[in-house]
Amino acid sequence: MCDCAACVTPSPDSTPRRRLLLGAAGLAAFGATGWAETANAEVPSNDIGGDEALKRLMAGNARYAANKPNMRDFSAGRAARVKTQKPIAAILSCSDSRVAPELAFDQNPGDVFIVRVAGNFINDDGLASFEFAAKVLNAPLILVLGHNNCGAVDAAIKVLKENAELPGHLPQLVNAIKPAVERASKGDPKNLLTASIAENVRQAVQRLQTAQPVLQGMVQEKKLMVAGGVYDLATGKVTLV
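Structure for carbonic anhydrase, as requested:
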């Protein structure tokens, strides 16, 4: 019987089995390489200006609104981020579940430092968090992000205009937003809610820009930029105010 290689008939399952083994080996090799690259990755620098950071956020928002976000591996750089973080921006966002800043600006893990509270207003705890982001983490930008149809701002309007009574600690939250509603009301706007949301953002921006003893000096020295915007729930677009 001839047993030369040309005459040997492979078993019915030998070729698929061989392919499977080769594929598994390839995946194992790729996985080992990928892990090594991830483990050795460095956290990107945030040594950029506030203007550049804002451009990156707005470019990311344009991708998000167009439903063309960057493809990314969320595990990439995870090991490197254990040791440090270098966010390009710190964001004050409403707690609304429909607003997700990382997604809305199409950013990677570690790119944005986020503080969230219903109504996106500034209190002492939030201020301390932004001092940490700017002074310790060297984030060059703080962005205050409001959104349309904000329930917290709407509640403040109802309290002021209709004497609505709120339970629990909600009155304390509304008290922080009232000044924005009162100022917006003076302009007799067509839509008080829309005007109040924008004004609430502006007031938070102003407080951050003038906050002592840390942020005001950084703003004056051009080491920090503070900006504001409003997120549209329907379109996903952020409009700067």
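DSSP finds nine helices and five strands in the chain.
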